[in-house]
Structures are given as C-alpha cells and as structure tokens.
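Protocol step 6 of 9: fold each sequence in the batch and record its structure tokens directly after the sequence line. For illustration, a two-sequence batch is reproduced in full.

Sequence one:
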Amino acid sequence: MFPKILIANRGEIACRVIKTARRMGIATVAVYSDADRDAVHVKMADEAVHIGPAPAARSYLDIEKIVAACKSTGAVAVHPGYGFLSENPVFAERLRREGIYFIGPPVKAIEAMGDKIASKKIAAQAGVSTVPGHMGLIADADEAVAIACQIGFPVMIKASAGGGGKGMRIARSVDEVAEGFERAKSEAASSFGDDRIFIEKFIENPRHIEIQVLADGRGNCIHLGERECSIQRRNQKVIEEAPSPFLDAATREMMGAQAVALAKAVNYVSAGTVEFIVDRDRNFYFLEMNTRLQVEHPVTELVTGLDLVEEMLRIADGEPLRLDQDAVTLTGHAIEARVYAEDPYRNFLPSTGRLKRYRPPAEEASTRLVVRNDTGVQEGSEISPYYDPMIAKLVTWGETREAAIETMATALDAFEIEGVGNNVPFLSAVAAQARFRSGDLSTNYIAEQFPDGFAGTEPDEGTLKALAALACRAAYQLETRGFVEPPALAGGHDSAERSVLIGDKRWDFSIPKSGDSFVLMSGGQGVSIEDGWQPGASLAVSEIDGRTFVVRMDRITSGFRLRYRGADLRARVVAPHVADLMVHMPVKTPPDMSRFLLCPMPGQVVRLSVAEGDVVEDGQALAIVEAMKMENVLRAERRARVSRLAASEGDVLAVDAVIMEFEAV
C-alpha cells in the first residue's frame, strides 16, 4: 500500500480522505491556500504545504504547485477528491509522467467521460439509453435557437465540461435559449476554462438517479446500487438517499447493467458514477458519468457497508476488487442533507463570514441508527467567497426509510450554526413534508413545494402550544434561579401566572410553585414537561406531553427565539396584564427600499446592463453579480428610470449594498 499520499483538495472531502488513510496506516499531505491556512484539513494531515493565494486558479487548480508539493514531501500518490482537478486529464497525465499514482481512473477514461458530447456518443454505442439532443458544438446563440426549435421545448443548455450545476440553463422559449446560451457559456468559461455548449431535450418532472460503479485494473466491474438525487436547486443536489424509493428491482438491475457496460466500454478503473434521468414510467436516460468520488458517496457506504475511499486506494495500488456483484447487498436506508452557507430566506443566496457557533449533532452508530457528519470546518472557521459554500454533509441511516428520515429530522433540529446564513431550516422543512416522506420526488420538487421561495414553516396548534409552554417554563427557571428580575405577577400563593405571545397567538399559563416539572394551562389542561432547557444552554431536549422536542433556544428581550423543524419563532413571556396592553402597541413599519437595486449576496458585479437615465421594463436584466462562481442575473421588478448607478463593473459588494437607484417614470 502507498506509504504517503497527497490530497489535492480542501475542506470536507480532504478530511474524509485523511480519515480513511489514517485508519489504513497511510501518511497524508494536505495542501492549502492563503484562505485555508488555519483550515481543519491542514491540521488533520501529517504534513501540509502552502500552494498559493486564495483564488483556486492560483492554488488548488495549479498543477505545477501540486506536483511540486508531492516531490517536496515524498508523496507517491494523489487523491483528488471531487471538484478542482479531480476530472482533469491533463493533471492525471502529468502525475503519470512524474511517476506519481493518480487515485482515480485512467486518463483516457477521464477524457472520454469528461466531455459530455463525446460521452453521450460512447454511451449510445455501448447500448446505454440516451436523451435526444444535439451533440455537436454550437457556434453562437442563433444556432442554439435553431437547434432548440428543432428538438422542441423545453431544452437543457449544458456546458460540455460542466458539473455542480454550473453552465446549465433550462430554456422554454426562444428568448430563454438566447440568454441561457450566453450565461451558460460565460459560466463554463469561468468555472472550467472550456465554453463549449450542447443542447438536449429536457425531460419534464424527472428523477435524478445515479449508479455507483467500482472497477479494478483487471477487467472486473460491479455496481453498488443507486442513489436518488432528485431534490435539487439550480441543478445542485441538496438531499440524496440510497436506495431510491422509486426504483423496482428490475429497473435497478437494468440501470446497473448499463452503468457497468459504459464503464467497461471506456476501460474504467476506480470508483465512478453513472447518472441517469428517470421519467414517471421508469424509463431512464444517460445523463453523464462522473469519473471521481461523488459528494453523496456516504449514503452508498452506509447501505453497503463499504468505505469507497478505501476501495479507491486499494484499486489504485493494483489490488483486485474484493467482492463480486452477487456479494453486493443493500441494507436499510440512508439519507444525506447538504448543509450550505446560504440564506434560504433570500432565495438561497450565498453567505460568507465566520462560524461564530458550529455545533453539529453528536455522531452515533448502532445496529438501529447512524448519524454521521462529514465536515471540514469547526467553530471559528471562515466561510470564504472563493470556494463552494458547503459547510457539512449530515448523513443518517435507519432500518427503514421512515426511520432514516426521522433520525435526520431530529439531527437537523440539533444542528447549531451561527455567523453565516445556512439552509438548516429549509432542510428541516423538507424532511417534515408529507410529500417528501411519501417518496414523491422529482427535480422540480423545490420549485413546486416552495413556489414563492422559503419563508419558514408554520407549526400546527399543538406544536405551538408545546413550544409556548417550553418558553414559559424556561423563563420561570431564569426567575427562580435569580438570572432575571421576576415581573409583578398575578396568582395565588401556590402558582404564578404567565402569558406567552408568539406572533398574534397567546397562551396563558399557571405555573405551580411546588415544582417545575410541568406547566398548567389556566383553563385547567395540563402540559407535562420533562428535562428541557437549562440556563446558558442553546439547545433544549424535552419531553412535552410524551413527545420529544429538540429545540434551539436563544434568549431575547422578554423571552426566547425558538427554532424547530424549519420554524423561527419569537416567544415573549410576560405577565398577563402586560400581554393585555401589548395588543395596543404600534407595529414598526420597515423602510421602503423598492427604489433601490440591492446586491442580494456578497459578490462581484460582472456586468451592468443599463446606464443612468435608461427606462427599464418589468423583468429586464439590470446587472449580473457573480458569487461562488455562479452568475446571478438581477432584473427589474417594474417599469422605472435609472436615476443613479452606485456601483461599477468589477466592484466587490457586500450583501444589501446599493447597485442602482430608480425613480418613477
């Protein structure tokens, strides 16, 4: 086995590879940019080499610096992780010439499958079902429009070298093709250095299902079942699971056989993934092959019991596969939720900053459930604008899909992140939805379930009452232990009265002074609370009327901020006579910012499409802001005149910075 390997990556995947290498007795070398000097993967590795400034093109994508790091440390092999150089045939070939092992597939396989146009032709020749489309290069927007009209709308415009949702656009009209072609071409050039574009038919309401394959250098190839990756946003996977709740055994066998056939057609070696789109009738079509480890590989590991990183290392070292197809079994169900630094309340725009609080749920493994958190950050880490905004991958396993979902929901309740916007509330909301729990999934799921964006969830009456009782008990704990001055309260010698206000709802409670193990409603109905919140804690684990609640609780003026299952609530705990008066308090009106175009996320202005004095129409493109290598088109909400430009092309702006100002026409 290799004595020392270098991980040509960062963050979560670098930490993931280091863990397996350490268990196998392999020494590890990390590489890092200026932005990652204090990163977790740097501290975990046995050695670390600085490779340049923060921009990936000058550090993690610099082949010469990676090769130099191998030579200076004596690393004999490189694991590329995913992203960056993981599917770069030039990098793999350079390592080969230097006598350094590439822990991945052969160069020719990367070249064949890395080009989406060529890969579809190879797939068709190998007998794999493919989507109708134009696989040739497209010169300009006019040709793109003509091809789209010939295929028939809707169409998918895709970068040939694309991945991770970048360089992809869905077009449903001629106008959308023209604009989508330009945006996809620009993103592809920025992200991959390759602006080639192709167009294919877009399958309505599809599922995104992929097959994991393993192949050794001796001609053996197997598949490890499928992963359902249909919950996506902007073509980026959000929640994945294994196995799919949709496939039957016959379809699984056919998809697996075609994935293996494709891998053999390109003499594939190592771990790889063949992605398909599947329609409502279980017809499936080849999408692409990823010649690397996938972000969502942990769900396959949990249902198969295999360590895919270990298998990649053994295959790269020349070992044959340790099992055949008949030995592959899928046990239980696993779900992965990607925790991103993004603001779900602002259309999931990227968020950057320092993790002031980062306390993931406790990891756990038993014969009944597993909670696993793959991450590359810790409390105090910086989420920078230079790299992917993923904070962690929360993965759960259960004996059934229902058990895995419930374990995931509870783990998300306990996931504490402060300092940057994050999508934990959104993930919690999805995990609680009846449609998700039923397995009725498609790549349109988020758009259909949240057509107006995400604004949090509204708990039912029973849940609200339980949360109100929890807040009441916590406030009383603070008073009885001397943390706050108790208000003047109504009530007799044996009880104290409290009112809890959440939004426009009110609950009146009578608290027995003989103990704090339960709270009585004034109407005589008891609400039993066991355990729960302690002063100074940010998490409450409580049994309320026999139901378990894991609630994030933070003190605010006269009460608590409560976060539970996607809901973000303010609970005010006051004396009843104060509650009577609060209904008469005026509500503060937020300022009218409609005459400004504000930067919705930290990013760089790459284009201003209007000038001062221009009259713009509803829906017209005003500016393009790039964040996390994704281009975001900002549009006018109504007809107006541009009275002032407050930013210029090239400016790097903070969230809510003014880009331009309007006046009525």
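Sequence two, same batch, same settings:
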Amino acid sequence: MKTHPSSKIHAFPLQLVLIVPFVLQVFGIVGLVGYLSFKNGEKAVHNLAEQLMKRTSSEVNQHLDAYLSIPHKVIQLNADAIRMGLLNVRDRRTVGKYFWHEMQAYDLSFISLNLATGEGTGAGRYDGKTVTIDDNAIKTPSLPKNTITYLTDNDGNPTKIMATSTWDTVNELAYTEPVKAGKPIWVRIYSYYDPAYPPYIVASAGRPIYDLSKKLIGVVGAEIHLLKLSEFLQKLDVSRFGQVFIIERNGMLIANSGQEKPFTVVNNEIKRLKAIDSPNPVVQGIAKQIQQHIPDLQSITNTQKLNVNFQGENYNVHIVPWRDQYGLDWLVVTSIPNRTFMAQINANTQISILLCFAALVVATAIGIFTSDRIVRPILRLNQASQAIAFGDLQQTVKDGNIQELNTLAYSFNHMAEQLRESFIALENSNAELEERVEERTAKLKTALSELHHTQAQMVQSEKMSSLGELVAGVAHEINNPVNFIHGNITHLNEYTQDLLRMIQLYQQRHPRNDPEVQALAEEIDLEFLMEDLQKMLASIKMGTDRIRNIVLSLRNFSRLDEAEFKAVDLHEGIESTLLILQHRLKDKPERPAIVVIRDYGNLPQVECYPGQLNQVLMNVLVNAIDALDEANANRTYQEIEANPSQIIIRTSLSNSQSVEIAIADNAGGMPEQVKNSMFNPFFTTKPVGKGTGMGLAISYQIITEKHGGKLECFSTLGKGSQIIIQLPISLS
C-alpha cells in the first residue's frame, strides 16, 4: 500500500487543537475585560455624576428661561397693541376676546387688563383646560359683584355666565405693585383653591401702561401655572433615582421632581411649604443638610457643590442660582445618591467573576463537544472523498499540522473542481437562456405597444376623416342656398331703394289730403317702415356674410381628410379652428367668454399637410379650453370676470427657414410629471370617457415625423401652460 504524504509530518490531534486555544482565549478575555471594567467604572462614577448633575441643572435653567419668559412677552405684546391703538381699552368685550385667542397660543393661566378706573377684563383657565372670559365693571354699592365669568364658544364669543364674583382690582397687589414699580415686574406667587377645580398656584407678571401724556391707563398682567414646573422636573432622567427641586431664597418650595405637591390644603386654603417641611423625605433631608452647610441662602451667587449624608447614604448635591431681569431669584437643587452608580459597578464586578468561571466551564464543554462533532463527519467525509477521488489527481492544498484535514483536502479539492466546472457551465447556459427570453419579451412588448399605437392612430384618423367629410358635405349643402340669398340681396336692396325713392317723390308731389291714403300710412307706420326696412336689409346682408364666412371656415377645416401636401396660410387654419370652437369660447351662465388674443406675425405660406395641421391646432386649442374650464370650476363668476380666462395665439418667424406658433393659456398649469408624460400614447388626466390620451400623442407625431418640426410644452404650476409648434417653411 502506498504511504500517504502526510505521514512524513508530525501532526497534532484535532480535538487538542480546538479545545486548548479556545478555552484559554475565552478565560483570558473575560477576566481582563472584567478587571478593566471594574477599574474604569469606579473611576468614571464621580465624573458621570458631575456631568449628569451639570446637564440636569442646565436643562432646568433653560426650561425656566423659556417657560417664565412667556408672561412678560405676552404683556409686552398687549402693552404695545394698546399703545399703538390696536386695542381699545374701553371695548372690554373685544379685549377679552383678544386675550381668549392669546390663551389658545400660550401656555398661561390668566391674561388680564385692569384699568385705573376699576374696570377690567381677562381670560383664564380655571380648570386647567377650558378658557373663560372675565368682565370687570366698576364696583359700586348697587353692583357689589362686579365681575362676570363667561363660558365661550369655539371663536371666543361669550355664551353664558359661569359665575359672578367681587374683585377690587385697583387694590390688588397685581395692580398696585407694578404701578408702584413703574416697570414690568413679577408681582408674587399667588394661590387660589376651589374644590371644583385643580389647585391654582401661579406666578403673576404685571406691566403698567401709560398714555402719551404719561398718565396711567392701567396694568396688563399674565399668570403662569407653577405646577407645570413639577411636571417638567418629573420627566427628567435624573428623577428616576435622584431628586430635583426649586426653592426661593427664603427656602419656600416652588417645584420638585417627586409626586408630592409643594403645598398643602388646610381648611380650603392652599398653604405653601418650605423645602425643609416637604412631605418628600429626600427633599426634606437634603434641604436640612443644605441649611446646615449654608444657613444664608442669599449668599449663594454661583454653583455650589456639596457631598452630604442622609439616612446613612451619600449624596452629590448641586445648587445653581437662577434669576431673571424682572425680579425672580430662585435656586435649582439637584441631588443624586452615590449608590445609583456604585450599585451597577459592584453588580458588574460580580457578574464578571461569575462569567470567568462560567466561560471556562462552558468553553471546555463546547470545545469537547465541537471537536467530537467535527472529527467524526470529517472522517466519514474523508473515506467518501477517497473513494470518489481514487486515481492520479494533482493536489492543490498543501500539507498542514492536522492529519485529518490534510487527508480531506486531497479528495475535496478534486470534487470541488469538478463541481465548480459543472456549475460554471450551468450558469452560462442559464444566462444565455435568460438573455434570449428577455430579448424576445422586449420584442413582443415593443410590437404590442406599436400595435396599440397604430390602432389608436387609425381610429383617430378615421374619426377626423369622417368629421372632414361631414363638415365638407354640410358646408356644400349650406353654401348653395346661402349664395342664392346673398346674390339676390343686392338686387333686393336696389329695388327697395327705388321703391322708397318713388314713395318719397310721391309724397312731395301730391299733398297729403287723401284720407284713405293718410289712414293707411298711419296704420302701417310708413315712416318707421321705410327706416326699418333699410336696417332689415343691412341685417340680412350681415347675416348672410356671417353664414358665408362660417361655410368658408367649415370648408377650410374640412381639409382634415386631405392628404395633399401644399402651401397654405397658417392664419387661415387657426381662424377656421377658432370659428369651429366658437361655441366653447363664448360666454355662458357660469362664466364670461374666454378671451382670445391674437398676436400674428407676417408669415409666408408654409408647405404642409393642411388637414393634419388643422387636427393639431384643434387638439391643442381643445386642451387649452379644457384646462381653463377645469380651473374656472373652482371660481365664481365675479372672480373669473376680475381675472378673465385667456388664450394667447402668437405666430412669428423663428428664422429664415421655419415659423413658430405659440398657444398659451392662463389656467392652473401642470405638475412636472404630467408635463413629461403628456405626449405619451394613452396618457390622459381627463375623466374616463372624456379623453383617449391619443390627441397630443398623434399631434406630436404629425409635427415631428410628418413635418420635421418640433412640439414642446412649457408649464408653470399655478400660472398656466404654453405649447410651441415649430414648422419648417419648406420640406423640399
């Protein structure tokens, strides 16, 4: 038996090669990562806490800047509106409705105007949702309840009285403090409790307004709900494990990130709480620790960082001052317990240790299992491959250190090469077959499209040919009697004039003393008859001229069935087409007439197929009229009359070799995708039964293929469209 070449090289068992490196790598990597994770996590805890608290304080300050700027912006707008005369302070109903609309745009609790006379008005959300309007009259002994609160409709109009109350506006702090300050200020934090509504605790902004003589008119005010600050704090990420609260410099609680309210209700009255009295134990404990470290909160001018211990737990605390230009001066306190971060670090350390041992056990078991599962199939595959590859075959895979894989490689290379060649041949056959199928499919699609196009052209051509024959026949039948009438009108007019002169001469020569003649003249109203008879003859002549022109236009339009190539006057074809379409251009009950503006240039006669060119003009003008009718469907008669529908027809010489016909409308234009597809066969935007989608496609073929010209469309959405036809003067 021939010795296998791999027996010359010392090789290791496959199971040993798989298990040992795998176990060592897993154990080493898990252990190293766990150790580094613990050290780095421990070092990053402090930095993370600092960054989180700094970011949280910044978010709160930014929210306070934005939220608490709204009242002063609103009262600035209202003061400016009053100063410029846009709001009449004496028209309390209009001012109240104006405030109602402002309440729809701004997240406020109340907007008010209190005049120096004791009158006033306002709009507010007492239940946090519904906006009502208050009307304050001057308080008198006969009118003790001088304030009426109205419910409103969806437009801010008062509908019914919701409540009446008594308000002495000029003695309220919301009025007296801004007047005393003489500038915009924050008045106070104001609370009101009604069991029927949610607790009402707001910050009130006021601004005095003066007339041109510096005389006080009153005070405009705006109030903002402070409970929404607590809602904002509750949404912060830090609120899941820490606490954020806002206090005044006197220690009174404004808002906090807990579920507890910053006030209590005692005997139907809201009583605000200091932070050290908060029902939230963490807020209360942190506030007491701050009071111990910083007894005077007024001394805080920049960010203060504290590490305090509360209930045996360490907390990182940041105190950041916040103030605005109108007098608010608050402190934002953020506290985060250290265990929030260290608990995760400790848990990660324990998990890392457990993972090291688990990974060692699992890696060993997996290595043994995997190696066993790999070796057995390889041995079976080796036997099969040796049987298949028996013979003198060249080997391409070099020897390695694994005996089993060396033996497998010799047999596998041979089989892989054979399979590769077979698959290559099969892929080539499939590719060739797919190319043939695609080629034949493309040819069939092209043939089908051309068939549809040809059928549509034949139908359209047959229709236009039939129309031409009908028009020519009608024109011929009308022409003979009209020519007879028109030819005799001249003689009739001469005879009538002779008779009238005879009557006039008779009247001059014979006195009017014959009673019978006089009676007959009066009966037939001879003077009117003589005058109206001449007008009637002129009208008959005008009518016959009109009929002859129509017949001439019909005969000209009947060139649709002509195939003769000849030189024609383009203006004659345009006018004939316009005459045919006169019934669509004239005024109707729903709209005025469509104005046709002609801007004809001095054109030579153009060699063309007149009938087919008339077909193109008909299609383009019909599309323009359809577009104008569609645009006018959404306009009233008066709107159309103010901006009438127009079709502008311009002809000119493009150069010495070609002429140009431009037909433009002032309809709604068309989108880009419609403009790009309008000359495609069967494309139409009209309803089913109104258009076939072949008119412009056939027109395009007539102009470009039959006449060697150009047919282009330019359209701007909302402004209109323009079709430009360019034709060579001579095709010879």
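Proceed to step 7 once all outputs are recorded. Observation for sequence two: The chain has four domains: 5-65+342-384, 70-225, 229-337, 564-728.
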